[in-house]
Predict the 3D structure of the following.
Amino acid sequence: MGYASPPGVWDGGRRVLDTAPILSVEGLTVALPKGADRSLAVDNVSLELRRGEILCIVGESGSGKSALSGAIMGAPAPGLKVVGGSVRLQETELTGLSERAWRRIRGNRIAMIFQEPMAALNPVMPVGQQIMEVFELHATMSPAERRERALNLIRSMQLPDPERILRSYPHQLSGGQCQRVIIAMALAMNPEVLIADEPTTALDVTTQAQVLELIRELRTIQGHAILFITHDFGVVAEIADRIAVMRNGRIVEIGEARQVLTQPRHDYTRELIAAVPSLAPPSGDASVSAATGSEKKTVLAVTALAKDYGRVRAVNEITFDLERGTTLAVVGESGCGKSSLARLIVRLTEPTSGRVEVNGKCFLTLEGSERRASCRAVQMIFQDPFGSLNPLRTAGATIARAAMLAGVDRRSARALASELFDRVGLPREGLDRRPSAFSGGQKQRIGIARALAMNPDVLIADESLSALDASSQAQILDLLRKLQKELGLAILMITHDLRVAAQISHRIAVMQAGRIVEIGPAGRVINSPEHPYTRELLHSAPGRGLV
Amino acid sequence: MSVRYAWLRALARPTAAIGALVVGGWLVVAVLSHALAPFDPLHSMVPLMTPGAHGPGGTVFWLGTDALGRDVLSRLIYGARTVVVVATAATLTAYALGIVTGLLAGYFRGHVDIALSFITNVVLSFPVLVLYIVIIVALGASAANVVLAVTFGSAPAIFRIVRAITIDLRSRDFIAAAITQGESTWRILLVEILPNASGALVVDFCLRLGYSAITMGVLGFLGLGLPPPTPDWGGMVNEGRTMAFAFPHLVLFPCLAISSLVLGLSLLADGLRQPAGRVGRG
């Protein structure tokens, strides 16, 4: 059947907005269960979505953006209840439809793309069969016809070797390939509306760039109306035609992308845009000069560090120095060995070969009490704020324990804990609370306080920002910068995000397949990258036009 | 929500409340048996009286007397003390062994894990009853040997639970944080890991206490339990077995005692399961 061409929608690169909306939401209100931190998840939200446009809904976690998409799909999350407003898909009123009626709409006229592509696919069924299942549900076709259509869809997703992909199980595909399969499934019935909930959040930057490109093409060439939900203003800048900013269940600002990005009207929008780390490194600030000054002292020296897993060399002859008061960012995509590198340095994993020197002393050969005494100098902040704190222990006890391990007596440790709580910007009454009482960003602050309690010389941050909202990210970056200036900390920042690296580091090392392919001053690496892989990473970073 | 409140709320549920009531009742009986028992459980009076029969001097044998003329109710009450002391001791030692080996195997993996898991599998592949009989016959019937047999029989299952939980917790970052802070291994095991495993273990402990009580009953029935004349529920069933048709009270009451205690413990475990499952998941 082929796609109906949308007349007048795409006019030589200029979008014309005079067509009638395909999806219109009016005064939609969704109630949260009693006892939640507010009474409404979505509060009187109205918006319109037209053919051939991408409307981005931006907001931080808890802003109600996922509750909104769930309500539009007629499947609010457990505990949520649509209490008012209307959702119309062209002439059809969607609120109050029976589950039977919904089944003819979902996947057929409105389709959804999820955040975790691996989790959205059935792991024990070839992906081709999963696509064909959509046709079985919504259309009458012969098996051969279904197969042909599935093959065409895979082909249009720009996946290599479509025949093989069709036969593959999800685990045999990469994250990016799985996400394309999900998109193919969503497009199977050529739906009028596509809802994408954080579709690229789980992907590497280079893969993310490709998937965003694909979604842009769907809009431009095939005229789909796309509701794109994300927390990342960089992604928004890449893809949005219009932007709706959500906070506490309300839309605080909605408008044309260029206007919202360049002349935001609402303070909160400005805050969110300001929180997006810029790719331009901060120029000539005090900490840089401090490092190049008289106190130039190498605190961490890594020489030819390597780790083999079976016959695979995960970390390959890594060598670098880290000086007091400076930050080195190690940037790379998932699986490049950057986290293994961090774990090798603190000896959570024993290396195959190489040397790690802390303050001139070889750390790798120490054993027993000697090892325990010198691990004070290198402390780590972990990726997952939920897993990195003992759930049964209060924040104060966790920090005090770390101080005691560094040789502080019990009473002073308690005092130090409350002092550190101030230092990382947490309210003192939280000292006696367990981790479950804190938000993700606050938990990460507790983790930083715990590391600081050991009075370290080197702080290793392993993807410590990746689980946080943009505004918490910006705050934690500020905190790290401040602590570095005050305490002269050396920071090793492990990250997949070049923007984060550009913000905080004096030097950047780019890792690919276990090797450092390029290392140099942050400004030089970002402004004139030498290695082609660095150039590719830079090119893929979303939101380059934003700042 | 604090952990303490979660336990309290668990007891507000009917299953847990009934379980706690039954178990608590038997505990009180065990502690106060000397005050509650109308007769000396070892003293012979009139043999084979039926329940409710009058004894000498206006006394009543509420549950009758056995073939040697001892008051069944008094033996039942003192039997509660026996079962509570021995079953709890046996379960506690089984837990001590299972927790230590499980923590070590789950934390260190490698050779330690392979060796301990191998031994566990060998023990588990034996029919437990045969194992008990072999141990008691070889070492003689005594309270200490019953404890030993039950420990040997149930520690492997506890080992498996603790090992699995430890492997899971071992991979969490808060353990990595403790390692990078130079925390000693035994403290990581006992302070960081064990409390986070306690939710599941408390539930399992209640169930296993019930199993131990059953095991004691079975051993007593086979004549391998505590040596006579110690009042022991399983032993009472065994002694009354041959006359069970003529004098059902000899067998019926000790059986009811065993099943009520086990049922109480199961209900309690069931009631605790849900809140305990939440503990440690943050």
